[in-house]
Amino acid sequence: MTYELILTQTHNRVGVIQFNRPKDLNALNRQMMAEVMAAAESFDADPAIGCIVLTGNQRAFAAGADIKEMSTATPVTMLDNPFMD
Questions:
Q1: Is pLDDT of 27 > 80?
Q2: What's the domain range around 27?
Q3: Would you say residue 1 lies in a domain?
């Protein structure tokens, strides 16, 4: 699968998910979280993978929640969690 905001790799039995929003210090937005969940589920379903590692990039692991995205969202939108279905 192709992702826009994360990179994935496999090293032996380790699945690596790397956040890839360096300009935003890897701030976690809804799209990134959906991609992380999809990648983690894919690695989890693979019997050849024994461990999943989450990592950032050179500047930051993650700055936390993406406040820019949250500032324009309604409370209902924030409660709706499309990647936890």
A1: yes
A2: 6-79
A3: no
